Amino acid sequence: MKLLSNKTGRKAKRGAILAGLTALALLPVAAPAQTVAVPTAENPFGLPEDVTIFGKADPDRRTATAVVNGYVITGTDIDQRVALVTAASEAPIADEELLRLRVQVLRNLIDETLKVQAAEQIELKVTSEEVEQTYQQLAAQNFGTQPEKMDEYLLSIGSSPASLKRQIEGEIAWENLLRRNIIPFVNVSAEEVNDVIERLNEAKGTDEYRLGEIYLSATTENRATVLANAQAIMQQLQQGGSFVAYARQFSEASTAVVGGDLGWVRLGQLPPPLAAAARQMQAGQLRGPIEIPGGFSIIYLINKRQVLMADPNEAVLSLKQISIAFSPDVSDAAAEAKVNQFADFVQSLRGCGDVEAGAAAIGAQVVSNDQLKAANLPEQLRSIVLNLQIGQTTPLFGGVEEGVRVLMLCGRDDPEDAGAPTFAAVMDQIEQERINKRAQRYLRDLRNDAYIEYN
């Protein structure tokens, strides 16, 4: 896949690297499917990311080590990098699938090594201070005032600080190489930008899609192996693996640095096989592996909207959360009775004005927020809330451990229609697409010129 989100390229320096690494490191921490979230400005109700709605013979079988232009990649390197990915998966990984993942990780480590070496050859060596600064920023984001816990966490999942720092070094080196050898030679004319803006205006009201992609290149010779690897990745994603983490580790598109996020695209911008799949998808769905020219893609539909039209996810909502809690030793029968009482109470509500008095009578808690953006709601709840009328509630959700809740819609301010993208934004988008194409060719040249010995 050759499209590139405008989050990458010229502007995807340390911030994009840090954002992608944050997703990689944070996601494995949440072990249970539903956890009690801490209320924040963006999530005032403390809603969990994953809610429960009430109701409805191999050529790669070899020792996975290599020497790349004299640099040794050890089995420990591979084990620790695999751990960064598999820690995000809730389901156990079969031995055969784990072997395929290890082989793919080895390929990624080889590419990472080539990038670091290429940067050093043209005196763009990444300093240890740069790596440490990014690592400490990431630790502070994840662990606040106790950044030293980052080391403990990585060791606890079978990885190491050194492994993550090597990944940071590879990404900074690649950004440096692109800025030196690719970006200065990419030019976009004003006529091209104006043509795109004109086509966008003509397409107003048609659908566009925000997609994540994991792209694996393949040749005639290794097609079967790459397909097997893609199928293994797809299976892990379906079992709860983090798409962002797998995209960062396995995707060969330069959007890997931002977790595979392509940004907003229209079907005409996609290869026909991907366009056909995206057209049938709903937000939150995965499809793949899909064969496209040059390899295979796994795609994830993050969201969908209409070109130049108001995005409902930008609506500002006024909500009341009504919830009940359970004592740690509550029996199943008592919990069921309390849930039934709560459901009857919710059913009896006739609007937001009824909530506080009635909730007090049954021991329920009420939290209000009148400035919550729809995009900040968990995915399973967002579409439900956006389809509510004023005074209506969601189905009950949650459980005994974190409490049972509903959300009531008390107001909604929809955004105005989106205007045409700016000239600068369109130019940046075109530039990033061209940078991505050249970057892929550059990496192929590095591979072709390398001396790689497998053990």
UniProtKB/TrEMBL annotation:
The leader peptide range reads: 1-33
PpiC domain location is 206-303
* Entry-linked SUPFAM superfamilies: FKBP-like, Triger factor/SurA peptide-binding domain-like
A molecular function (GO) held by this record is: peptidyl-prolyl cis-trans isomerase activity
Q: Which domain of life is it from?
A: Bacteria
PROSITE patterns the record matches:
PPIC_PPIASE_2
Q: Does the keyword Chaperone apply?
A: yes
State whether keyword Signal applies.
Answer: yes
User: Keywords, A to Z?
Assistant: Chaperone, Isomerase, Periplasm, Rotamase, Signal
InterPro entries hit by this protein = OMP_Chaperone_SurA (IPR050280), PPIase_dom_sf (IPR046357), PPIase_PpiC (IPR000297), SurA_N (IPR015391), Trigger_fact/SurA_dom_sf (IPR027304)
Return the protein name.
Parvulin-like PPIase
Write down the species. Erythrobacter dokdonensis DSW-74
